[in-house]
Amino acid sequence: MDAYTDEHAAAGIRTPLPKLDTWPNQFPGYTITTRFPEYTSVCPKTGMPDYGAITIEYEPRGQCLELKALKLYLLAYRNLGIFYENAVNRILRDIVAAARPVRCVVRGEFTPRGGLTTTVEAHWPRGARTGRRT
Q: Which of 2, 43, 64, 104 is an active site residue?
């Protein structure tokens, strides 16, 4: 098997994707959880599809994510070559840039491949834990 390269590792991290729109939040101190059970992307090395569910949990500050824009953003991963570890971290990065939440967790639960399932979880602020599982 050929070695993984830096190009494989960085694939998809900077690819332009649809804009995440927001709308003004009217209430402080609550949590929004959105689940996208039909996540698909492509392994940048093998070209094989990856499938899973993405769960986004965040506490809005001044802005909430507009759900149609979020759906279009997540659907854009369908043909994108990106490792799912990077996809989860990119989704978190893009949500934080768009909505500036108080806190956010992005969790990717990926379907079996070769007998393995993988869950990737990224937190904002980095290193924070919500103590809650959805």
A: 43
pLDDT in tens, 81-109: 999 999 999 999 999 999 999 999 999 99
From the list 2, 21, 50, 104, the catalytic residue is 50
User: What is the spatial distance between Cα 134 and Cα 44, in angstroms, rounded to a whole number?
Assistant: 29
Domains of the chain, start order: 30-124 (3.30.1130.10)
Residue 104 annotated to the active site: no
Annotated active-site residue 50? The verdict is: yes
